Amino acid sequence: MGNLGGYQVLTTQAKALGGPAQLVAHIGQGAIARVAPGLITVGVLVGAGATVGVQRLIAWRREVIARGEKSGEDLVAILEDEMAAEDAEGDDKEPPALN
To answer: Do 12 and 6 meet the contact criterion of CB atoms below 8 Å apart?
Structure first.
């Protein structure tokens, strides 16, 4: 049986490992072991990118909230100034009705 070439190598290895299923499992484990460091690296990079993205989202949200609060304060100040100016003029007219 020495003339079977690659087939003989595979059958000999399969027999040594306990059968063809174990041979395939060993080949698969080797492939996973070669790919795993790359997958881990990708996972770490994606995780780091997600962390940075979440941090930027939180910072943006805080900035938008702060701008909204400032705008609200500015609007209240403007309205109070206008109301004080109207009171100083003595204009006691009722505001126009909203349609």
So the answer is: no
